[in-house]
């Protein structure tokens, strides 16, 4: 019997036709036509990727197309893939085996989050032919996370050093003293790196609240938070946790999505941290959106979700103050999938603490869909994690990420100071 590699030498067309019988022989009798469907799949992918596809199938794995289509070879669908089918209301039973192969479907990607792409939403879609593999057990399909095919920046950084913390999110910046005024060139390069890595980490940043506010002004207007306690200046929020004030930030969320124009970014600095514990995690919500099936992406088109503060900040307010704040910050609807205003990438924009329901959808259906979408931030493949030290500052793109502060340090003290920068209306 010829090997797949040897058959590739026959030429692409003859190669794929030659393996049809091989695939049909390898799968159960009730799927004996699977190889015929794979012919269309592999012709789209090209010879090199086609070999990988067929090898995967012959080993009994499921291959999911970037858009969510799949070619199955005798394996029941389980785990997160089954959960998504149940959530999307598919007619196929969540535990059933697909009887025929579905052609791989290419989908559009906004391309790299680079300085060149940062002038506005992408005007032309880039065809993304990255294969996605689902073995039926893993929490999330395996795929290449970078939409550009590599994890390098769009151009070298000239003003500082940068070390990525994960393939797509989080990077530690060195050689920058944020207590000193920034040049426009440095600010522009930092902003490009923020768009590319979504959250930046700076060590040994020791400055006053006034300097913290001044640094945030390089990116826009600092917000005076309507509910949280303040430091020496009103724009700097002080988050003090310890034995008498247990942490409440241990839930995935985006800052202040209950506002009509939520913050574009947040700058959080560690003043006092426990000897161990108290890490913060961030999730790349563009990668989370990319990981959805084509069926789910279609279902989310045009949906809007209602956000509000009453389930969180509203709990500690008296009736009169609650009514006053509700007049100031009425519930607001944002797109379930927003488009980043600078990179053009699509992002999941719902979170557990501020998103109440999906507008116009029955409550039970809305709750089920929101649970599924909010769970996407929990996949480690989309995350990075920071171990704080006194003087560490994290600057994140609030439009593109969610974050979670671990509460594992109770009853020890943790003191943080934060400035948020006003943003635009999600679209």
Automatic annotation (TrEMBL):
Pfam families: TauD
PANTHER family hit by this protein: ALPHA-KETOGLUTARATE-DEPENDENT SULFONATE DIOXYGENASE
Family, similarity comment: Belongs to the TfdA dioxygenase family.
Keywords associated with the record: Dioxygenase, Iron, Metal-binding, Oxidoreductase
Name assigned to this protein: TauD/TfdA family dioxygenase
Domain TauD/TfdA-like: 163-420
Superkingdom, natural source: Bacteria
Gene Ontology MF terms in the entry: dioxygenase activity
Species the sequence originates in: Streptomyces iconiensis
């Amino acid at each position: 019997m010829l090997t797949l590699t040897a058959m590739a030498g026959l030429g692409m067309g003859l190669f794929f036709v030659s393996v049809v019988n091989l695939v049909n022989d390898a799968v159960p009798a009730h799927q004996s036509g699977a190889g015929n469907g794979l012919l269309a799949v592999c012709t789209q992918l090209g010879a090199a990727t086609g070999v990988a596809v067929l090898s995967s199938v012959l080993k009994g794995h499921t291959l999911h197309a970037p858009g969510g289509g799949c070619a199955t070879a005798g394996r029941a669908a389980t785990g997160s893939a089954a959960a998504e089918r149940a959530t999307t209301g598919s007619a196929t039973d969540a535990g059933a085996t697909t009887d025929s192969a579905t052609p791989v479907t290419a989908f559009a990607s906004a391309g790299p989050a680079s300085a060149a792409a940062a002038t506005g939403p992408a005007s032309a879609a880039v065809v993304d032919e990255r294969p996605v593999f689902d073995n039926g057990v893993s929490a999330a399909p395996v795929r290449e996370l970078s939409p550009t095919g590599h994890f390098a920046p769009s151009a070298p950084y000239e003003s500082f050093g940068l070390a990525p913390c994960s393939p797509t999110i989080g990077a530690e910046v060195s050689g920058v003293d944020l207590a000193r005024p920034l040049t426009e060139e440095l600010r522009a390069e930092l902003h490009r790196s923020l768009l590319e890595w979504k959250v930046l980490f700076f060590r040994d940043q020791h400055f006053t609240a006034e300097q913290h506010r001044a640094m945030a002004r390089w990116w826009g207007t600092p917000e005076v938070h309507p509910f949280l306690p303040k430091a020496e200046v009103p724009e700097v929020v002080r988050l003090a946790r310890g034995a008498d004030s247990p942490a409440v930030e241990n839930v995935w969320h985006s800052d202040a999505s209950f506002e009509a124009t939520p913050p574009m970014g947040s700058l959080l600095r560690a003043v006092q941290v426990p000897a161990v514990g108290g890490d913060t995690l961030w999730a790349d919500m563009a990668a989370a959106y990319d990981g959805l099936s084509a069926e789910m992406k279609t279902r989310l088109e045009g949906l809007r979700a209602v956000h509000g503060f009453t389930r969180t900040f509203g709990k500690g307010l008296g009736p009169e103050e609650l009514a006053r704040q509700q007049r100031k910050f009425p519930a607001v609807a944002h797109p379930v999938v927003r488009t980043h205003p600078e990179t053009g990438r699509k992002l999941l924009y719902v979170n557990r603490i501020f998103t109440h329901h999906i507008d116009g959808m029955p409550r039970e259906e809305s709750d089920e869909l929101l649970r599924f979408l909010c769970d996407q931030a929990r996949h480690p493949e989309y995350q990075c994690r920071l171990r704080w030290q006194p003087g560490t500052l994290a600057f994140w793109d609030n439009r593109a990420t969610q974050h979670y502060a671990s509460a594992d340090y109770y009853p020890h003290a943790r003191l943080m100071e934060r400035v948020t920068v006003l943003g635009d209306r999600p679209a």
